[in-house]
User: Which sequence fits this backbone?
């Protein structure tokens, strides 16, 4: 199989041209060395019968790899993940059309460094976690293209390209802040005639350690009262769980009573328990927290607070708390704890109805 390659100097740049079985492609480079290296890569691919894959890698751009990433993965993502991830990738493509317009086989570590530098100098500057996520999109796009399109691209994201992220939060409710927050929630509901029961949602989050999205997706079919135990259980559907794992745990008696009192006679099993989506919950919480003058306290901090209380107030073991929070920090332990929802009853005494 004959391979024809040549290099011509055009002005200050070098143009490399390749012809293989009637297929032609050319590329311009700043140096003759870079042009020669590119020709050598294609020649090697031709000798190993991988020219078609090399040619595809030489013509497809990084931005187009990201398009393939979305197309290939979109059906595997949950609806919320699909929307947010697609939006983030489209934003990345819009911010860096020049860099992402570079052919995939020519995109290298220096281009990654340039993109990272731009993100850091943006107004406002991108957080380390955002930069890491954007670079991660490119890394995954290359891996996916090699695996599913049969390309043989060198991944430009090398060790050290990803910035270190130190965004761990340790914000907890200070003395009297819970009371102030709940008072502000009640006043917000009254003053604005808000249909989101944000006060109840906050108390629910503080007991269950559920994520905001999980709370928003909670349906009446996920609330179940065991007639023998007289205990109300909450089930987090795996479709709406961040980790794709279902979990089940008991509610305290008083909170269970309040939750079930929300349900109207006409409410269907598949309708939302709190009647609000995630943006509505977020808005109601942020405005209530602002009224309470809580500095730097986010809705997700309720999950941190709730998790800490499982140990401090209920004295749960780590694997028992994990059943409630859904964290994966204890490797593979969930495989051996299917019956622990019942075991939790012995420690969480407040789930039982009061003695008559």
Assistant:
């Amino acid at each position: 199989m004959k391979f024809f390659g040549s290099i011509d100097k055009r002005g200050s740049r070098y143009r490399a041209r390749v012809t293989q079985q009637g297929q032609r492609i050319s590329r311009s480079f700043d140096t003759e060395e870079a042009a020669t290296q590119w020709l050598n890569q294609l020649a090697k691919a031709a000798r190993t019968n991988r020219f078609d894959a090399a040619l595809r890698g030489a013509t497809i751009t990084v931005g187009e790899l990201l398009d393939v990433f979305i197309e290939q993965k979109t059906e595997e993502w949950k609806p919320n993940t699909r929307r947010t991830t697609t939006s983030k990738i489209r934003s990345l493509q819009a911010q860096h059309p020049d860099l992402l317009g570079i052919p995939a086989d020519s995109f290298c570590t220096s281009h990654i460094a340039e993109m990272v530098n731009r993100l850091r100098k943006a107004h406002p500057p991108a957080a380390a976690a955002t930069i890491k996520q954007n670079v991660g999109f490119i890394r995954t796009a290359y891996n996916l293209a090699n695996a599913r399109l049969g390309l043989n691209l060198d991944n430009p994201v090398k060790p050290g390209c990803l910035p270190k992220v130190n965004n761990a939060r340790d914000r907890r409710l200070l003395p009297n802040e819970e009371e102030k927050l709940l008072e502000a929630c009640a006043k917000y509901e009254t003053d604005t005639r808000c249909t989101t029961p944000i006060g109840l949602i906050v108390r629910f989050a503080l007991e269950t350690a559920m994520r905001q999205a999980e709370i928003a997706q909670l349906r009446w079919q996920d609330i179940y009262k065991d007639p023998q135990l007289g205990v109300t259980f909450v089930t987090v559907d795996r479709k709406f769980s961040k980790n794709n794992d279902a979990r089940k745990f008991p509610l305290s008696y008083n909170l269970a009573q309040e939750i079930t009192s929300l349900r109207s006679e006409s409410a269907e099993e598949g309708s939302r328990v709190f009647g609000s989506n995630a943006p509505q919950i977020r808005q109601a919480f942020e405005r209530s927290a602002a009224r309470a003058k809580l500095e730097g306290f986010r809705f997700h901090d309720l999950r941190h607070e709730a998790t800490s209380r499982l140990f401090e107030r209920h004295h749960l073991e780590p694997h028992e708390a994990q059943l409630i929070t859904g964290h994966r920090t204890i490797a593979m332990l969930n495989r051996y704890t299917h019956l622990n929802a019942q075991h939790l009853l012995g420690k969480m005494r407040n789930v039982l109805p009061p003695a008559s």
Notes: The first helix runs from residue 32 to 47. The two ends are 90 Å apart (CA to CA). Residues 69 and 299 are 31 Å apart (CA to CA).
